Amino acid sequence: MGAFVFGDMFATMIEWNVDPVIGTIGPLSPRWYGVLFATAFMLSYVVMKRVFLSEKKSIADLDRLTLYMMFGTVIGARLGHVLFYEPHLLLEDPFEVIAIWHGGLASHGGALGIITGLYLFHRALPGYSMTWLLDRLAIMAALSGMCIRLGNLMNSEIIGRPTDLPWGFWFMRVDAQPLARHPTQVYEALVCLVLFVGLWLLYRRGVASRQPGMLIGLFMVLLFSSRFAIEFLKEHQVDFEASLPLDMGQLLSLPFIVAGVLFLVFSRRTSARSG
Fold first, then answer.
1. pTM of the entire structure?
2. At residue 245, what are phi and psi to the nearest 5 degrees?
3. Which ranges of the chain does DSSP label H, i.e. alpha helix?
4. Torsions phi, psi of 20, nearest 5?
5. What are the pLDDT digits (tens) for 121-137?
6. In DSSP terms, which residues pair with 31 in a beta bridge?
7. Beta-sheet pairing, 12-16 with 169-171
8. Least reliable range by pLDDT among 68-77, 81-90, 207-216
């Protein structure tokens, strides 16, 4: 699982042969990805509870928001994967569209699902503005992104291209022969971890209150810019991406980067007027 393999004098690679299934408990066979996905929601709830308590918001409202987020994330991520990467399933096998247990979740679709869930929550409880929700959920989204990318690592999926860097991973469930690849899941998990820490510190310093829109703007620009860059190190997820000037992950990242810049402009103008 974590052994180092030495080839040339300066070349190393890390063997990665983790079973995606944790074990068997009666009729259940829990998978690492599912556990980490659930962990993302649990950790996010714990952190968001601190936010709600510090701002004297109702915990009952947080429970309701959590349900909106759970459904929005799962439905959005699955529909996003089908629409962006496997649209043929819509006609060939419509049942497969809802078969989330077969795998296939798109982070961009999950982001759109979260935004939709927030909007529906805002419509139900208009006392929570969209900017207030987005700024605070950006912190949780970064934390969740880290957990989900670690789940991808445990599945040996979304792998990188070959590399001669010493931290390359040999994904033994993908490549029969030793081949060091960029651990792009680890790269993205680390980006999300740094983003989470940075956004949380900014929130603790009152940035969300003084400059509404700043946290969500920073999140979108930094996360999706890094995603755009890391995509150059990834293998294509589907064959048709080879014919595109940019792969699907990069094309889908561009609107989020633009939206993030607009949030930052909005935040700066708002804070300037209030100042």
1. 0.85
2. -65, -35
3. 32-54, 59-85, 89-92, 107-124, 130-154, 184-204, 207-210, 214-230, 248-274
4. -60, -25
5. 999 999 999 999 999 99
6. 21
7. parallel
8. 81-90
Degrees (nearest 5) of the Cα angle 185, 186, 188?
65
DSSP code for 14: E
For the stretch 214-232, what's the b/e string if a residue is b when 16 or more beta carbons lie within 10 angstroms of its beta carbon? bbbbbbbbbbbbbbbebbe
Quote the CA–CA distance of 193 and 142 in Å, as a whole number: 7
Q: Taking Cα atoms as reference points, which of 218, 176, 180 lies closest to residue 200?
A: 218
For 65-77, letters b (16+ CB in 10 Å) and e give: bbebbbebbbbbb
Q: What counts of helices (H) and strands (E) characterise the chain?
A: 9, 3
The two three-digit tokens of residue 115, written as one number: 């935004």
Q: Which residues pair with 6 in a beta bridge?
A: 12
Query: What tokens were used for 108?
Result: 């961009």
pLDDT for the residue 8: 45
pLDDT for 13 beyond 60: yes
- Amino acid code (one letter) for 190: L
What the block records as the tokens of 229 is: 């860059």
Query: For the chain, what's the residue count?
Result: 275
| Sheet containing 12-16: order of strands | 4-6, 12-16, 169-171
Among 227, 246, 235, 229, smallest CA distance to 162 is for: 235
